[in-house]
Every structure is written in C-alpha cells, then in structure tokens.
Amino acid sequence: MTRLTFLGTGGGRFVTLTQERSTGGIYLEDDYRVHIDPGPGALHALKRNRIDPTMTGGIMISHCHPDHYANAEILMEGIHGGRGDRRGFLIAAHSVTMGRNKVGPAVSRYHQDKMATVLTVSPGDHFQIGKLKGSATPSFHSDPDTVGFRFDSGDGVVSYIADTELREGLIEPHEGARVLILATTRPLMARIPFHLSTEDAAEIAEIIRPDVVFLTHMGKKFIKEGPRRQARWVEERSGVRTIAAEDDMKVLIRRDIEVISRRRNRRFKIRPFNSSDRKEKASVEEPDG
User: Fold this and answer.
1) Residue 85 burial (CB < 10 Å; 0-12/13-18/19+)?
2) Looking at the domain that runs over 2-283, which CATH code has it been given?
3) Alpha-carbon torsion (224, 48, 231, 184), positive or negative
4) pTM over 0.85
5) pLDDT tens digits, 103-140
6) Sign of the dihedral defined by the CA atoms of residues 178, 183, 187, 188, in that order
C-alpha cells in the first residue's frame, strides 16, 4: 500500500505568513518514506500526524522558494541523526542545491554533506534510490530550475505538478498517473503568471485522466473563494474525481483509493478507472459519516 499525507495544503507568501493553512508539504510512504517540499510548519505537521521524522528516508524539493524548503535542513539533521556516517538522500532542483544567480542555494553544503546521496535534477532526469523510482518533470515557474516529480509506486504512478504555469510540455510526462497532485494556487478567473489556476487544473485533469486529482498549495484568494467549490468546478469540467486537499488528509492507495479527512471526520473510497478504458469516469463510494 502507498500512503500520502498532506502535511500542509497552503502556499504562497501570504498563506505561509498567516498559516491559515499549513505549508508542511507532502509525505509519501511506500517501501520508502519521502518528505516532499517541507516548507514552514513541516515539523509541527509531522508531530500532529505522529510521523517520526528520524524514520524518513529522504527529502525532495521542487524549487528554491521558502514555502517549499524552509524546514528541510532540520529534517535532514533528523534523518542523519548525529551519526558519523552519511545517511538518507536529497533530491532537488539545481537552485536548491547549487543556487542560480541570486536564488539559493536553499540547503547548505554542511547539510548536504550529511546525506548519503544528493541528486540535483532537471526535467527528464530519472532517479532510483533503493526502491524509490521516479523522474523529475518540467515546470514553468519564476525559479526557472523548478521541477515536478513522478513516482513509480507499488500501487501505480503518483505525480506531483509543482508551482508552474500551463505551457506546452507540462502535461505529457504525467500521463498514466493514478493519483495527480496539482499545486493550484489561484481560483477561477484569477490567473497570474507562473502558477496554476482552477481552469488550468481542469484542463490538465481532462487530458491525463487519473483516478483522482488533489488540489493543494492554495493561495489566499483560492482559500477565500472556497477550495471545495474550486474542486467541484474542476470535476464537473474534466469528468475526473477532484478533491481539495485538507491539512492532515491521508490517502491510502491500493486497488481502491481511500481518502481520510480528519477535519471532516470522514473517509471514502474512489474506485479506479476501468483499465481498458481510462476515459470512463471514476466511480465513488462515500459512506455516511
């Protein structure tokens, strides 16, 4: 079973400052444990979810903005655990590990040297560390080194499209994903450069046709306009089951995909597309409670 925990579903400078939604990133567990984009609030979110940071295998950072990396170094300290030998891994964009012009690096050489493996990745690069297998995917963001990530989990492909605007070349590397996570910062009719809007999310979902789309990394205006309303619009437009992620939401990926919402005290299952016809809309079971 593959498990996702949304340690934070906020994004952008204003939500990061107010913490009206946490900005702790995403935790992926399969035959490995990976913390993706551990921004401010990551440590508190791990504690809330009873996840031991010393058991994490590695950190992955999509780009060099603090809402994606601010807690990375202390988490790397936890992975290393004060041991004499190097331990764990860091997979990150060039700006994060090396810096680029006036941006970065986000992680010091001291902390990079604590890791057994440091991979600086660009779009199209493939990686395998132990049982973790995946690739870096294109993004079109104000940090030009930004990447997304595609993971080949034991229960199908999990894809994360990080901060980006919708351009040619963005979608194709994520085709075949069962679970698609979209950093959707802006709501309907409020598109800005270098970020996805609700309209963009619908277009991406309609083309990729995953079993489920999760919207996350929500900006202040997106939250004000109502994340669940934005998700409904994407679902109605694309025909793909779409969920506005919540802080501390868990997703259990097996044959069915089970979503557990702590905030609403609910859990429900999403049945997969028929493997012979992925254009068929995913069916859903939402038990009472």
Assistant:
1) exposed
2) 3.60.15.10
3) positive
4) yes
5) 899 999 999 999 999 999 999 999 999 999 999 999 99
6) negative
